[in-house]
Every structure is written in C-alpha cells, then in structure tokens.
Amino acid sequence: MCICVNCHYMSRCKIYQAIEDLHLVKTNPSPNILDLQFDPRKVQINVRVSTEEEQINTDWDVIQCSSFVTDIGKFTSSIQK
Ligand code: SF4
C-alpha cells in the first residue's frame, strides 16, 4: 500500500499526484500537478508488473519517503470533502 494515503503532505505533494494519476484515482477536487508546491525528498517507489491473460498491469506505490509526516486517514478525509 502507498504510504502517501496517511501522509500530511498528500494533498499538495507532486509525487503523490503523479502516483494518483498513474492509478487513475482522483481526490475531490483533484489538483493540477503544476500547481502543487511540495517536493518531497528521497522517495522510493515500488512498481509491480503483472500479467493477466494477455494484459499487462502495473501498480505504483511509494514505500519510503524522507518527507513523510504521519496523518492517519488523510486520503479518506480528502475524498469526503
Ligand atoms: S509520503 Fe512523501 S511522496 Fe507521499 S505524500 Fe508524503 S511527502 Fe509526498
């Protein structure tokens, strides 16, 4: 699971928005990545590639980030606004 969903910076983080775009998941409202100000440090992203029948699937998760600040439920609260 992507650690960003419980990070204080999720709603203004450039890397999180890029991951969200790859997942085709949108918070409400979804910001334009060019408007985001927060540039996190030392981000490690895990990419899983799998095949199902003849389709290739990818999944992207931030698994480590030096800028992470715990805010449990940040993703859930962002989609309820
Ligand atoms: S964990 Fe890092 S990459 Fe993810 S939202 Fe927080 S600051 Fe951004």
Instruction: Count up the helices.
Output: 2
* Mean pLDDT level: 86
Give the N-to-C terminal Cα separation.
22 Å
Q: Shape from CA axes?
A: globular
Structural class: alpha+beta
Task: Provide the list of bound ligands, each named once.
Answer: iron/sulfur cluster
Widest β-sheet, arrangement of strands: 1-2
Radius of gyration: 13 Å
Strand segment count = 2
Order of helices and strands: HEEH
Profile the largest sheet: 2 strands, antiparallel
Provide the low-confidence segments as ranges: none
Helix share bin: 10-25%
Number of structural domains: 1
Strand composition percent? 25-35%
Describe the structure.
The chain has 81 residues and is α+β, with helices and mostly antiparallel strands. The chain has one domain. The protein is 21% helix and 26% strand. The protein contains two helices and two strands; from the N terminus they run H-E-E-H. It has helices at residues 14-23, 74-80; strands spanning 43-52, 55-65. A hairpin with a 2-residue loop joins strand 1 and strand 2 (55-65). The radius of gyration is 13 Å and the shape is globular. Bound molecules: iron/sulfur cluster. Iron/sulfur cluster binds next to helix 1 and strand 2.
Name some characteristics of this structure:
two-stranded antiparallel sheet, binds iron/sulfur cluster, plastid, alpha+beta, Uncharacterised_Ycf34, 21% helix
